[in-house]
Write a structure and sequence with these properties.
- The complex is a heterodimer.
- By secondary structure, chain A is mostly helical.
- In chain A, 69% of the residues lie in helices and 0% in strands.
- By secondary structure, chain B is an alpha+beta fold.
- Chain B has a single domain, classed as Alpha-Beta Plaits (2-Layer Sandwich), CATH 3.30.70.
- Helices cover 23% and strands 35% of the residues of chain B.
- Chain B has a 4-stranded antiparallel sheet with strand order 2-5-1-6, covered by helices on one side.
- In chain B, a hairpin with a 2-residue loop joins strand 3 and strand 4.
- The mean pLDDT of chain B is 95.
- The chains are: A mainly alpha, B alpha+beta.
- Chains A and B meet through loops of A and helix 2 of B.
Chain lengths: 419, 117
């Protein structure tokens, strides 16, 4: 029998979960009040340690958030008081220092996470740094956890985080939500950081798939937080939709041997219908706002794939039109390549090859270009040429799962030729 | 906070004094500087003579060495600066983006350290 006061065996796991979920909320509030990332983090870390001891003894408090915030604020105020320059700093924090008795109920704190997201994803910070800061400060992941997910040494990741926080402080990156005239471009920066996190997990380049899958889940969680904070932003809706729609194919994307399974051959019964349904609803909501954007179009394309119960039912006509729209906003050869691949299901492979050849000088170094050519030659039964382009694609691929996939395609063709 | 905006451009391909483009550029610089003064953010600003006029010094083991030219050969050369007094980086970046050379060169924005004396 376990008495109610006995902490569960996985007590620390439970606390870890609570702390992770509350971290962004708590740290953003502390940074707002005390205007210092480092002090805020130290104080919150101390509060978590105190919580481990206190909660084990007294059980979980009614509000873990309020408890941790109170504890962290007390620690910060103590620290400021002990500071030699207390008198000169006193004016900075009059409210907190006048109130000796901090009560948990005082903290119906406003949500400051949006400031934190915009600061972590400030375009003056390197993308890699933004990714790391966002995962640490909003996601509540430790430097070691982030390092593991990105396959870098923990020290490297720790340095990256320190560098980021130092730049925020020394360069005076403000802890604010950008003005109306800046908001759209700054939101784009936030979205691209979240999408980078997702893609890092999604384009699994090596083993350790479960860690990578966690990165996708974390990106989805962060996108949900962002949407909660910016509820009427169609691109934020669409990014979440895009992530959910991609993620819905997680279980069907890899074969037993870990080789990538292309959309065409995926067992669609393995797709996660909950994620698909939520994704489609979000896409429709975002499109209804009539402010078209790149994530909305990409999500709409993905939704069309999700809606097809068999590959041959795919609405390629609609997809090609969407790529046309996407190309207007994002005129890159990669979009053109994807458009031609979609178009190839409506026209002959020979015509598609011709269209692809026109792209060569723009993306002749890009692996998917040759994979697409190889596939088209295979579809027009020119196996020799197909093999040649598979070889070229393999030589350009830096990703093991992708290479394995291309190699398998190629060896299938070679054995077919021998027959 | 004080920020310095360092203006870099390729001297070879920049508008040459006497040309029509140069006259236009000077006009743009005057307008930008006027705006900085009006908004009360300008602390100081100067253009520099060409990088050809630079002399670089290095003292090692008490021995002073002089080189004719800049400290390093780069594609774009430092050609001038503005110093702004701004609340934060966003504000400094907003003003730095108004420096005309941003359209053909590069503007590097750095906070200036405050030393308490």
């Amino acid at each position: 029998m376990v008495s109610p006061s006995t902490p569960p065996i996985n007590f620390e796991v439970a606390i870890h979960k609570i702390v992770r979920e509350e971290w962004g909320y708590l740290i953003s509030s502390l940074i707002k009040s005390f205007n210092d990332f480092h002090m805020a983090e130290d104080a919150l870390q101390d509060a978590v340690e105190a919580a481990l001891i206190n909660w084990r003894k007294n059980g979980l408090p009614p509000s873990a958030r309020a408890w941790l915030l109170t504890a962290a604020r007390r620690k910060l105020i103590d620290k400021i008081r002990r500071d030699k320059n207390f008198e000169s700093k006193k004016q900075q924090f009059p409210f907190f220092l006048d109130n000796d008795e901090l009560k948990e109920s005082d903290y119906a704190v406003p949500d400051e996470r949006l400031r934190l997201i915009f600061t972590c994803c400030h375009p003056a910070l390197d993308h890699n740094i933004s990714v790391a800061l966002t995962l640490q400060l909003l996601g509540g992941l430790t430097a070691t956890e982030i390092a593991r997910a990105f396959l870098v040494k923990p020290e490297t990741m720790a340095q990256r985080l320190v560098r980021g926080k130092r730049k925020i402080k020394q360069a005076g990156i403000p802890y604010i939500i950008p003005d109306q005239d800046q908001f759209a471009t700054r939101l784009d920066a936030v979205l691209s950081v979240l999408y980078l996190i997702f893609n890092e997990g999604y384009s699994a380049s090596s083993g350790k798939k479960h860690i990578r899958a966690e990165l996708c889940d974390e990106a989805i969680r962060l996108a949900r937080i962002l949407l909660y904070l910016c509820p009427c932003e169609p691109e934020a809706e669409a990014l979440l939709a895009l992530m959910l729609l991609h993620n819905s194919r997680k279980s069907a994307r890899f074969g037993e041997n870990g080789v990538l399974v292309p959309l065409e051959e995926q067992d669609r019964s393995k797709w996660n219908m909950n994620e698909i349904n939520e994704g489609i609803i979000l896409v429709e909501k975002s499109l209804a706002r009539k402010q078209i954007g790149v994530y909305q179009i990409q999500a709409a394309i993905s939704a069309l794939h999700s809606e097809a119960s068999r590959f041959k039912d795919t609405n390629w006509r609609e997809i090609v039109l969407l790529y046309d729209e996407l190309f207007k906003l994002l005129p890159t050869p990669v979009i053109q390549l994807n458009r031609i691949v979609a178009l190839s299901y409506l026209i002959s492979p020979e015509e598609s090859i011709k269209a692809l050849e026109g792209l060569k000088q723009d993306i002749g170094h890009y692996q998917p270009y040759y994979a697409a050519l190889a596939d088209l030659y295979k579809r027009s039964s020119k196996n020799k040429k197909a093999i040649k382009y598979y070889q070229k694609a393999i030589s350009l691929s830096g990703n093991q799962a992708e290479q394995d996939f291309l190699k398998q395609r190629m060896s299938d063709l070679i054995s077919l030729q021998k027959q | 906070m004080k920020y310095i905006a360092l203006i870099y451009a390729n001297e070879e391909t920049s508008p040459k004094p006497g040309s029509e483009e140069f006259g236009q550029l000077i006009g743009e610089y005057e307008a930008a500087t006027g705006k900085f003064i009006n908004d009360g953010v300008l602390v100081g600003s100067d253009p520099l003579q060409s990088v050809n006029t630079a002399t670089t010094l290095r003292a090692r083991n008490g021995k002073l060495a002089m080189t004719d030219g800049p400290f390093a050969e780069t594609k774009e050369q430092l050609g001038g600066y503005y110093i702004f007094e701004c609340d934060n980086l966003d504000e400094a970046l907003k003003y730095a983006a108004m420096i005309p050379t941003v359209n053909y060169g590069s503007i590097e924005v750095r906070p200036i350290m405050t030393i308490e004396r």
